[in-house]
Amino acid sequence: MTPMTWTVTPEPHDSPAATALWRAYYTEVSDRYYLLHENRRTAPEELEHEITRADWSALTPPKGTLLLARHDGEPAGTAGVRLLDPETAELKRVFVQPQLRGKGGAALLVAAAEATARTLGATRMILDTRDDLTEARALYTRLGYEETPPHNDDKYAEHWFSKNL
């Protein structure tokens, strides 16, 4: 039997594969938020509004990149990198399809994002996440990110992390 394989490559932020993964990402994080705070799932019109208004153009060269992970050739996850200033990159929207979690894809995506940030000239990566995204916080800690004071005022951010590259 051939082992399952991961690949990570740059992808246009508006490609069909990226769009499908954005939808899966938004559905999961939105549902988690509303279930926790309002005991309901995201209404379809709310989800469509958020997906439609999202602007991912910052994840395009020369100051950003969207990375897409494939597992055995099938789109499986994303991570975005955007350069905030000459030394600082931001890690955005790390996501792996639920059925593929625990198979190394997230760590591979973050490592590829860090390498991408270095090629953009960054010496530090920052990110923010929410309290209910416990898996994400555990991943970032395991990969050497340290919790820091807030670096933005995003209304959904509850934890901020940084790592020297």
UniProtKB/TrEMBL annotation:
Q: Where is the N-acetyltransferase domain?
A: 20-165
Q: What's in the keyword line of the UniProt record?
A: Acyltransferase, Transferase
Q: Which GO terms describe its molecular function?
A: acyltransferase activity, transferring groups other than amino-acyl groups
Pfam families per the UniProt record, alphabetical: Acetyltransf_1
Q: Which domain of life is it from?
A: Bacteria
What name goes with this protein? GNAT family N-acetyltransferase
> Which organism's genome codes for this protein?
Streptomyces aquilus
